Amino acid sequence: MTYCIAIGTQEGLVFCSDSRTNAGPDMIQTHSKMHVFRPASDRVFVILSAGNLATTQAIINQIEQDLEDHIPTNLQNCRKMVEAAQYIAKVSRIEQQKAHDSTVVSGVDTSATLIFGGQISGRDPANYMIYPAGNFIADSAETPFLQIGESKYGKPILDRILTRKTCLEDAARCAIVSMDSTVKANAAVGPPIEVLVYRTDSLMTDHYIKLDVDDDYLREIRRSWDAFLKAGFSSLPLFDWEQRSHPIYATHYLPPDSQNDTETADTRSNSQQPPMAQSPHLETHQLNKNVGTSDVQDQQ
C-alpha cells in the first residue's frame, strides 16, 4: 500500500511519501515514490505515485524518455502547469492501457494514481491529483492538500491544521505527523519517509529529507506528538456526573442514626459502584437498601 501527501501554501509546496511496497504479507519491499524533475533551469516538478509499481515505473520511464527524445510535448516545453499536468495525465493513461492489455487475463489491477506538482518560472506553483482515467483535480483554498493511497488515517490532522496561511515548515511537520499516524495504523505503509519542501520562486529542491525508522528527528516528532495528545486528552472536559461531589444515589437517603457513617458510605459508594441515572425506582430501591429493610433483602 502507499500514502502520499502534497500541500500547497502561500509560501510554497510540501511533498511527503512513504517507501513501502508489498505484494502480499511475505513480499514487502522498499521503493521511492517521490520523483523529482528539473528539465530546465526555469522549472521544477515532483511526482508522487500510488498503485501498481510496474505501471508507475513505466510512467516515469516514459517521461524521462520523452525528455531525452525531445518530443514536441514534454516537461521541458510546457508553458503552464496545467499543460504539464495534461501531458502527465496522457502518459499515465497510455501506460496504464498497455499494462491492462498485457495482464487482462490474470485480472491484476494495473491502475495508478499520481500527484503532480511544481512550478514554472513566472507562474504560480500548483498541485494536481491525476486519477487512473487521466482526469485530474487541483487543491483548493478550502482543502490545501491532496492525498493518494491509504489516506484516511492521516487526514484528520490535515483537516484541523492546514490552511493556505500555514508556514512551510509547519506544513512539513503536519505532513510527517499525518504520515506517522498512517504508519502506526497500517502495516502496509512504512518508512523511509521522504519529505521535500519547495519555496515559491526558488526553483530549487534542496530542502529534502529522508527519515528512516530509527531517525532521531522522526523519533522526536513521535515522542512530542504522543505527549501532546495525551496531555490534551487528559484536559478534556468532564462529564456532568464526574463533576458532582457525590453520586446521585448516595445523597439524602441515610437514616438519622447513620449520620456518623456518611463519609465511609460515600467513600465506599464512590469506589465500588458506578454512577446510575436518577429515577423514582432507583431512589426507592436505594432508600430501602440503606435502611436495611427485609423485603429488599429478600428480592436480592
Distance between the termini: 57 Å
What amount of the residues lies in strands?
15-25%
Let me know the number of strands: 12
**pLDDT averaged residue by residue:** 84
The whole-angstrom Rg is 30 Å
Helical residue percent? Answer: 25-40%
Strand order in space, largest sheet = 10-1-2-11-12
What would CATH call the architecture of the largest domain? 4-Layer Sandwich
Domains (count): 2
Tally the helices: 8
List segments where confidence is low: pLDDT < 50 over at least 5 consecutive residues.
248-255, 261-300
Task: Choose one word for the global shape.
Answer: globular
What does this structure look like?
The chain is an alpha+beta fold. The chain has two domains: 3-233, 4-Layer Sandwich (Glutamine Phosphoribosylpyrophosphate, subunit 1, domain 1), CATH 3.60.20.10; 240-292, no CATH class. 38% of the residues lie in helices and 23% in strands. The protein contains eight helices and twelve strands. The strands form three sheets. Strands 10-1-2-11-12 form a five-stranded antiparallel β-sheet, with helices on one face. The protein has a five-stranded antiparallel β-sheet with strand order 5-6-7-8-9, covered by helices on one side. β8 (126-130) and β9 form a beta hairpin. α1 crosses α2, α3 runs antiparallel to α4 (168-185) and α4 crosses α5 (216-234). It is globular. It starts with a strand and ends with a helix.
Describe what is shown at a glance.
The protein is of the alpha+beta class and 300 residues long. It is 38% helix and 23% strand.
